[in-house]
Amino acid sequence: NTNKINELTVWTINKENKIWKIKVNIVMLGSPGAGKGTQAQKIAIKYNLNQLSTGDLLREEIKNKTEIGKEIEHIISKGDFATDDIVNKLLKKAVINPVYRNHIIFDGYPRNINQAENLDLILNSDNQSLNFIFFLKVSREDVEKRILGRLICENCNHIFNEFDDDELQKTCCDNKKILKRKDDNLQVIINRYDEYMKHTKPVLDFYSARNNYFEVNGAEKIDVITGKIDQILGA
Ligand code: AMP
Fold first, then answer.
1. Which stretch, 125-129, 168-172, 192-196, has highest mean pLDDT?
2. Is the CB of residue 159 less than 8 Å from the CB of residue 165?
3. Distance (Å, rounded) from C-alpha 12 to C-alpha 21?
4. Which of 21, 118, 223, 235 stands the most exposed, by the fewest C-beta atoms within 10 Å?
5. Angstrom distance (rounded) from CA 6 to CA 136
6. Are 8 and 47 in contact (CB under 8 A)?
C-alpha cells in the first residue's frame, strides 16, 4: 500500500517520571487566507490527525440551521467573529471527544487571547498538551489574491483556488459543487484582516516564547510550505 499513513508521536515525561510516547496536537495560526486550512488538510492526511476547523464547525451549524447557526449566520457573513462562548463550547466538545483527542490539528483556533488561554485549560484538564504551534506569515496583498480565488467543496470543505491551475476542478466528491464562500469578497476580506490584526496578533505574542512555536513563510508554494512544516514535525 503506497498510501502509507505516518504516525506522529513525541516522547514525554509524566508526573511519575515515566517516559511515554504520545500523539500530538498542533495549532496552525495565520491571518485569513494565510493557508491554515490548506496546510492543516495536508498535514492531517499525512499524519492521520483530526483537522478541527472552527470555521467549518460554525458553517456546519449554519448549514444545519441550528439555534447557534441562526445566531451566527449574519456575523460570519460580515467577516466578524463568533462569540468566544459559542466557539469555546463547540470546540471543547470536539477536543475531549475520544475519537479526536490527542491527535488534533487546530485550524482557526485560537483567534484571541481568551481562546488561547481556554485551549490551554481544556487540554490540561483532559491530560493533553499542545506540541507544535505554527504561524504562517503572509502579506496583505497575498491574502487578498488568495481569498478572491478561493473555492470550497460544498460537501467535504476541500479548498481549491482558481488562480492555481494545477488544482482547479469543477466538481468534487462525486459531482458535488465547488463554490465560492459567501464571506470571500474584498470588503469582507479587509474586515477579516483587520479583525485578525486586532485580536490574533496578541496570540502570537502569547505563544512565541515557547520552544515549540515556529514561524513559516506562508507566501511560498503550497508544497514548499508543507515540506517545511513536515521537516519541523519530523525533527
Ligand atoms: P475560517 O473558515 O477560519 O476562515 O473562519 C470563517 C469565519 O468563522 C471567521 O471569519 C469568523 O467569523 C468565524 N470563526 C472561525 N473561527 C473562529 C474563532 N476561533 N472565533 C471566532 N470566530 C471564528
1. 125-129
2. no
3. 6
4. 235
5. 23
6. yes
Q: Give the tens place of pLDDT for each residue, 87-101.
A: 999 999 999 999 999
Residue nearest to atom 1 of ligand 1 (CA): 55
Give the closest residue to 33 by CA, choosing from 232, 200, 230, 166.
200
Residues near ligand 1 (Cβ within 6 A)? 32, 53-55, 58, 76, 79-82, 87, 108-109, 111, 115, 183, 192
Residue 110 Cα: closest atom of ligand 1:
19
Torsion over CA: 224, 229, 232, 233 (sign): negative
The residue with cell 508521536 is 9
pLDDT at residue 4 is higher than 50: no
CB-count burial class (<10 Å; 0-12, 13-18, 19+) for 74: exposed
More confident residue, 15 or 106: 106
Distance from the alpha carbon of residue 231 to the mean position of ligand 1, in angstroms? 28
Q: How far is the CA of 82 from the centre of ligand 1 (A)?
A: 7
| Residue owning the nearest CA to atom 15 of ligand 1 | 55
Amino acid at 160: F
